[in-house]
Amino acid sequence: MFIKEKQLRIKIVLIIVVVLFLVILGRIFYIQVFSYNKLNNLALALWQRNLPITADRGRILDRNGKVLATNITTTTLYVVPSQVTNKEDTAIKLAEILDCDKNDILKHLNKKTSLEKVNPEGRQLDSKTADKINSLNIDGLYLLKEAKRYYPYGDVLAHTLGYVGIDNQGLSGLELQYDDYLTGKDGSIKYVSDGKGKRIKLSEEYEKPQNGMDIYLTIDIDIQLALEKELKNADTKYSPEQALGIVMDPNTGEILAMGSRPTFDANNYQDYDLEVINRNLPIWKNYEPGSTFKIITLAASLEEKTINLFEDHYYDSGSINVEGARIKCWKSGGHGAETFLEVVENSCNPGFVVMGQKLGTEKLYNYIKDFGFMDKTGIDLNGEAKGIMFDLDKIGPVEQATIAFGQGISVTPIQQVTGVSAAINGGSLYQPYILKYISEPETDDIILENKPNKIRDIISKETSEMVRFTLESVVSNGTGKNAYIENYRVGGKTGTAQKVNNGIYMSGNYIVSFMGFFPANKPEYVVYVAIDHPIGVTQYGGTVSAPIAKNIMKNIISIKNISPSKEVKPREYTWLDTKYVKTPNVVGKTKKEASTLLKGFKIEYSGTGETIIYQEPDAGIYIKENSTIKVLLN
Q1: What is the rounded distance in angstroms from the CA atom of residue 138 to the CA atom of residue 119?
Q2: Which of 25, 160, 188, 578 has its CA 20 to 30 A from that of 7?
Q3: Catalytic residue at 332?
Q4: Which helix (H) or strand (E) holds 559?
Q5: Nearest CA to 275 among 303, 316, 241, 313?
Q6: Catalytic pick among 188, 193, 260, 291
Q7: Which residue range(s) make up the domain with 13?
Q8: What is the Cα–Cα distance from 160 to 264, expressed in whole angstroms?
């Protein structure tokens, strides 16, 4: 009996041992097969260290490849606390170099961590400071490359480009809008350390950083600089509350230039108020458009054939009565008898009230909607605002009358430019955009590309042609004459909008604007300028904004080397204006005949003989009176 019990116990122990052996064997198998990666990574975390190498942020370039935002190489200080033997002495030396408190450095050196970034004291150091730290030759201090965002043009295009934080994350503008594409993938240097964190002298493993994508814009930096120069001049001359400008290709929706004042330098964005750096006025500012909105009323009236510009007449007595409300013309006493072409040339408010009445409330409302004034344009920038418009059932006779000449509604500059572009480009509304394409920097492969997006057709090509003709007359014969450029066909419309505060119109406080385009027969550029409350000048769009727009257009003509036209509409001059006259053709004429034809000009002869074989300037070009004409004899 005793022997049997002993044998049973031996069997039980043996079974237990076998079971334990099988459990251990199974556990080993599980660890080796199923948990290997997890445990291996945990082990690596104990003895492997990664020194980060930051990737460069993708560049932002204009349509011609000129760099608008790039990176400069700086250095950032990292410490491995366990490798620093004399922390007190190290802290003193670093504090002296970094010009900071020793205790702040000690906090970093005493951290219970495998790798500590000395932030912010040791971030984005220049080469001189980095060399001083390197010369200390202290174990545990690591100087690693870090890219810092740099904007070579300073405050140019600042609101559109945006800015980035100290960790290279996009915080506004295109930097925020396309942050996922611009942000690269960091690399690292991996090394091995012992149990105490001491570096073991083994081979290092280098993981290359992957830079962000490059972004190409529709912006032309040369046109942008011309716009910025004029806004800066306006800021200096008139001290306005705000100023803004947009240049767009009306046939595609591509933004060629966009700027505003006040502006900021994105390299030092911390020095500016948030209200300044976060408000991109061309897409954010809301205000009554004033007379530039009359272009929409004009286009709708011509499309519906409710007026004939040449045959229909209106008598402007200086005001018009609508449901007991007296709506005045800007000209005291009115313009008298006018054709509707002259109504537009004179920017006559009562005449446009009549235009709106002929259209009717519903048609006027629908055209305003079709031209895009009730929705955001969808431009690829953050912070776009939406205009404010009455609901159709709340538009009475007075509201309809004021809307017809751009009062009582609120729109954004980008809405105006987009809508007017549709009126003069043949009748099609395009979505504005500023991103041209995104490319992979190493292969130049295009990752994403924007193309013109036509939203809808609104008016016919014939109507659009008539709108262009009318607005060219505004510049040559009407309120837009200060935008007239000799030998170039320019169309446009002035705007003077009284500002509103708490529902009450402000006295003597206006936003003055000008919407221009050229060449008027086939527009390639739309230029919009708005100046908010200019000081020390009569506040009219024709007085303030039209000359600014003219200068921008003249710069574009020079930049793009646009040839003059011999089909321009002659301008009506006043006695104050510098007069230009058309040069006659004297090629093939005799000296005597040329002297008669060129009366009033100075003549400079070259060569000998009696017959003229060449002249400069060419015939049909407008030049200043009493200018010199060079002629070559045979």
Answers
A1: 19
A2: 25
A3: no
A4: helix 541-559
A5: 241
A6: 291
A7: 2-34
A8: 11
